[in-house]
Amino acid sequence: MKRTHPGLLRNILATNVRRFRMARGLSQQDFALEIEMDRTYYGGVERGERNVSVDNIERIANGLGISPDLLFREAD
Amino acid sequence: MKRTHPGLLRNILATNVRRFRMARGLSQQDFALEIEMDRTYYGGVERGERNVSVDNIERIANGLGISPDLLFREAD
DNA sequence: TTGTGACTTACAGTCCGTC
DNA sequence: CGACGGACTGTAAGTCACA
Description:
Two copies of one chain form a homodimer.
Chain A: H1 9-23, H2 28-34, H3 39-46, H4 54-64
Helix pairs in contact in A: 2-3
Chain A binds a DNA duplex (19 and 19 nucleotides) through helix 3.
C-alpha cells in the first residue's frame, strides 16, 4: 500500500518514531513485537504510508517510553 | 456509538481539542464546518469516542491554528 | 447547540510471503 | 534488517434522522 502524499504530519510522526526507535537500538521487528504490532504495518508507519490512529500512537509512544507529544514535534 | 474506551491518549486529545476550540469561541458545528468535517463525527472526537487518525488530527490542529503536539500534552 | 444509534464504504491493521 | 506485495478482517471514516 503506497499511500504517499496527503499529510505531512504523518511524515513528521514517521521520522520521529524511527529516530526514537533507533535511539533505543531496536530493529523494527523487535520493537513491533514488543508493542504487539504487526511488523509490516509498523514498517509502513515509519515510511509515512500509514494513517495511524490515536490508540496506536499511544502504543508506540508507550513502547518508546516517551510522551506522545514528542512524536509530533517538527524535526530540528 | 458509545466507544467509552481503553486509551487515555484519546481522552487527552479530546479535552485539548475541546479546550482550544472553545478558546476560539466557536461552536462544534461552526468549527466542524470550517475544517470540512461532519459535525457529529467531530463531536465524537471531543467526547473521546472516536479513534481519530493522524490525518484528521492534522486537519483539526490546522483549523485550530496550533501545533499538533499541543493536542497531546497532559492537562495541567 | 450537542448527543446518539444505525448505517455503508474506505481503509486501518493482520498475516502469509519474497527480495 | 527493512522494503514491499497479496489477501484478508476489523474498524475508522463519514453521513443521517432524530432526540
